[in-house]
Task: inverse folding
């Protein structure tokens, strides 16, 4: 569907660079420093649904209208509501790296690799340090679809209790990757970052699979 200029709004109200950012359909001056979807709809004369589809690159909206509405959004400092987007998609687009306290320096290059890969794939990364003795509390606070989409655990070693705890949360739907292998020497930063990139990619692939898998395979 190719969206046209809304009825009642003349084409000369639009400039060469996109929709005007100075007048609404009622010729009122816009002074708000940050617009929301409702503001953009009022300014442009399009429906909220059309504006939303355009900003989300829907095939229902013409390329020209998308371009103009994106320009309008930029001009009015529009920032998507991440909380609303997460609720709608049932995703947060956030990963969390969990590691024992006082181990941040040891895993710094690995974490750099995870952040690099996650950013390239559209995810943000949080860091959480925990006390291994209270790992069950950490996992309880990070239930599936509540805070983050998935977790990467960096552990020097595990025991049967820890393994059972992590496996149980995976069965309950938590996307989780753990790394318990010995790291390359600190002098080989490139290899450590490579490990981080692989971990980030593997977790995101697992998240994507869970989100797109048939219901009967959603818990694995």
Result:
């Amino acid at each position: 569907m190719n969206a046209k200029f809304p009825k009642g709004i003349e084409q000369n109200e639009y400039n060469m660079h996109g929709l005007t950012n100075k007048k609404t359909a009622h010729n009122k001056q816009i002074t708000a420093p940050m617009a929301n979807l409702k503001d953009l709809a009022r300014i442009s004369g399009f429906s909220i649904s059309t504006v939303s589809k355009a900003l989300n690159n829907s095939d229902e909206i013409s390329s020209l209208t998308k371009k103009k509405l994106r320009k309008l959004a930029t001009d009015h400092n529009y920032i998507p509501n991440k909380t609303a987007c997460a609720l709608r998609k049932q995703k947060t687009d956030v990963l969390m790296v969990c590691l024992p306290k006082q181990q941040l320096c040891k895993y710094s290059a690995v974490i750099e690799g995870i952040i690099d890969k996650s950013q390239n794939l559209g995810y943000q990364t949080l860091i959480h340090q925990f006390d291994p003795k209270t790992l069950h509390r950490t996992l309880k606070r990070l239930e599936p679809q509540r805070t983050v989409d998935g977790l990467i655990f960096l552990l020097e070693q595990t025991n049967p209790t820890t393994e059972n705890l992590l496996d149980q949360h995976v069965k309950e739907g938590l996307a989780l990757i753990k790394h318990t292998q010995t790291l390359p020497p600190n002098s080989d930063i490139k290899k450590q970052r490579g490990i981080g990139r692989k971990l980030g990619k593997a977790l995101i692939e697992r998240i994507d699979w869970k989100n797109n898998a048939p219901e009967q395979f959603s818990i694995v």
Summary: Residues 189-212 form the longest helix (24 residues). The chain has a mean pLDDT of 76. DSSP finds eight helices and six strands in the chain. The chain has two domains: 11-80, 89-217.
